[in-house]
User: Fold this.
Amino acid sequence: MLGRSGAAMALAVACALPASAMAATNIECIDSGYSAKDTATLGKYFANFRYETFDNGAMEKLVPIFAARAGECASEYGWSVDAISDAVFYRTSELLGQALTQRPPYKPEDMKKLETALARADPARMRKIFGPIVQAQIENSKASEMSGTDETYLGMLLMSSGLPMEGKHVAEFAGALIGARIMKQIYAEKFAAR
Assistant:
């Protein structure tokens, strides 16, 4: 543990470093501060979102909006270009997670069952299972196959939700939702490490 003089020295060094050398902060800046026009565009994304067709490229129209807002946040908080990129992808994955949650292919009571089941999952195990899949998407590479043990774990988790397992794409929807949430975590971590 740092003593008073050590803490004072660490603070002085941190203040002397250029902003790009310090960890990026205030990622939540990108969550708000949009113009009325941009807010309306975001609203249209939610209104038109359907899980069955995913976003049909609609997210691509939002990236410039998020990038412009990230630029404003960067000016305010001294983010690097890499931190701006991380914040944009953080926001897109956050928005996708919100859209999936707010416009699922289920009745509200069924979505609650799914969320209850997902809340029972071990977060570290979910990250271990889905992290490589999400990372492969980020890198535009092929993900390794999920192990049989992990498939069984996820299968039991989803079946325990009580949702009917046929006809509603339970596994695909749950995977998309979990993937969006883990992608948000990954980009938040990347951002904080900048």
